[in-house]
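We modelled the chain as a single entity of 262 amino acids. Its sequence is:
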Amino acid sequence: MHSLIAELQRLFGRPGQDLPDPLPETGFALDLVSPDARVWTMVIGIAPAAGWAPVAALCEGVVNELELPAPAVSVAGSAGFRVWFSLADPVPLERAEAFLAGLQSRFLAVVPAALVSLLPSSSARLVPLAPAQAAGDGRWTAFIDPAMGGMFADETWLDMAPSPERQADLLAGFKSIGAADFGRAMTVLEPGGPVVPAPIGPVAGLVMEPPAVPGSAPHIGLAVGSGFVDPKSFLMAVMNDPGASADHRIEAAKALLPYFEG
């Protein structure tokens, strides 16, 4: 079994549904609900028109407020972004629907409902598994490093087939949500759960810009903020900062090349 298939099976497979090895280029429809109506994988789709910011806000909220493992994220071509939640232990379909609805209400309330899809539901249970060729034009879906998600704000796809080895390495860093953590999160997400204030400030990578201190001196230099937890997210912010000099943006792009070359 290829390492990519092993990682996909570990995170998103369920008993009785073995993934094809290798995955067909045209894609594979993952059935999210077992015959006895149990769910191991949940997906939130966010349309391209919503942009990257709500995806980042959702991922941040899941990690920082709910204290759950970071979800995996994929670019999905014309469908935009997909955020993937893996469960170590299955839950009934109704419980999965409640979890997804809670996430939408808490972290995506400002996004028009028409731009958000929640899977599975009582009426939809299949989702295309990445990586796959999104259309007959050479565009591909793929899992991405969430810290680099801003790079895909305008084009939610890859222009070439992603490396299976790199996809496997990326997915190896994600963990499934344990039963105890899922239950704790549900106490927060269900109606009447405790309110946790959302972080304040613009989204930059997966890091929130600290609020300005009244009376402090204005910022001079790059306008990307501070508090980045890794070099990639900082470089990503510099490359996409329209206020940065061309030299700064070019140097940031050069430094990021090793993360994206095949």
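As a brief sanity check on the tokenised model: Helices lie at 3-12, 53-65, 93-107, 164-171, 179-189, 231-239, 246-256. The chain is about 30% helix and 20% strand.
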